[in-house]
């Protein structure tokens, strides 16, 4: 069974451009999480969906960030406009049901904003 | 606010050595604690999950302990191997939301 799939694996863009990161959770999982990892702050939760509905977006840094989950098998994280401080590795994770279950992580997208 | 600290930030040991990684957290009101492994360029792999009511969990050469009252957990790796080289992350679930709060990890290098 395939794990969590993320694309692209690497993204290099210039400041001010729009960036879209994509995630396909494990089939049958009802919960999806977006995390950001930086050297300074470590891994931080950005947003959590349950049954395609955003439940907790308190970690989304600012209005430039938005996330959607149009169906159970696809989610996007968009940054518009991007800034150099957004450079980080973005992980998507999914779980069977809810935040208390074991989360399975994707390989991450390494974003560099020049 | 829950804070998770891992010491040391990096550790280098010769193959075959037994070692201990440390994790501490500031708020003892947790649901569970989880240890992950992260390899370069890859996602996180769950190693062990300890519920708040448990004292330890074992999987193969790995043993994780939890002392909730003192806000500490340790990950013991027996007979370390070069393939154990990775970054090990500790995370706690707690608070009103149950979100995972991560430490910054310990980067382990096992030399042949």
Walk me through the structure.
The complex is a heterodimer of chains A (114) and B (112). With 114 residues, chain A is an all-beta fold. Helices cover 0% and strands 54% of the residues of chain A. Chain A starts with a strand and ends with a strand. Chain B contains no helices and eleven strands. In chain B, the strands form two sheets. In chain B, strands 2, 4, 5, 9, 10 and 11 form a six-stranded mixed sheet that branches. The N and C termini of chain B lie far apart (41 Å). Chains A and B meet through strand 5 and strand 10 of A and strand 4, strand 5, strand 9 and strand 10 of B.
Descriptive keywords:
heterodimer; A: 114 residues; mainly beta; seven-stranded mixed sheet; B: 112 residues; six-stranded mixed sheet; 0% helix; globular
Short description:
The complex is a heterodimer of chains A (114) and B (112). Chain A has no helices and 11 strands. With 114 residues, chain A is mostly beta strands.
Lay out the secondary structure:
The complex is a heterodimer of chains A (114) and B (112).
Chain A: E1 5-7, E2 10-13, E3 19-24, E4 31-38, E5 42-50, E6 53-56, E7 65-71, E8 74-79, E9 88-95, E10 104-105, E11 109-113
Parallel strand pairs in A: 2-11
Antiparallel strand pairs in A: 1-3, 3-8, 4-5, 4-9, 5-6, 7-8, 9-10, 9-11
Chain B: E1 4-7, E2 10-14, E3 19-25, E4 30-38, E5 44-51, E6 56-59, E7 62-67, E8 72-77, E9 86-94, E10 99-102, E11 106-111
Parallel strand pairs in B: 2-11
Antiparallel strand pairs in B: 1-3, 3-8, 4-5, 4-9, 6-7, 7-8, 9-10, 9-11
């Amino acid at each position: 069974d395939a794990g969590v799939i993320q694309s692209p694996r690497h993204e290099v863009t210039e400041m001010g451009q729009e960036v879209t990161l994509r995630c396909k959770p494990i089939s049958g999982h009802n919960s999806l999480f977006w995390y950001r990892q930086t050297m300074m702050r470590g891994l931080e939760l950005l947003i959590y969906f349950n049954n395609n509905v955003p439940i907790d977006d308190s970690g989304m840094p600012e209005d430039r960030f938005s996330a959607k989950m149009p169906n159970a098998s696809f989610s996007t994280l968009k940054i518009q406009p991007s800034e150099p401080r957004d450079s980080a590795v973005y992980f998507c994770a999914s779980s069977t049901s809810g935040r208390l279950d074991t989360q399975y992580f994707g390989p991450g997208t390494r974003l560099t904003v020049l | 606010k829950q804070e998770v600290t891992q010491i040391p930030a990096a550790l280098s040991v010769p193959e075959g050595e037994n070692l201990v990684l440390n994790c501490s957290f500031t708020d003892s009101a947790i649901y569970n604690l989880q240890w992950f492994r992260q390899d370069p360029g890859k996602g996180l792999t769950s190693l062990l999950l300890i519920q708040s009511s448990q004292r330890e969990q074992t999987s193969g050469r790995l043993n994780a302990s939890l002392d909730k009252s003192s806000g500490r957990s340790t990950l013991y790796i027996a007979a370390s191997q070069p393939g154990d080289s990775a970054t090990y992350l500790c995370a706690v679930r707690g608070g009103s939301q149950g979100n995972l709060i991560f430490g910054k990890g310990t980067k382990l290098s096992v030399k042949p």
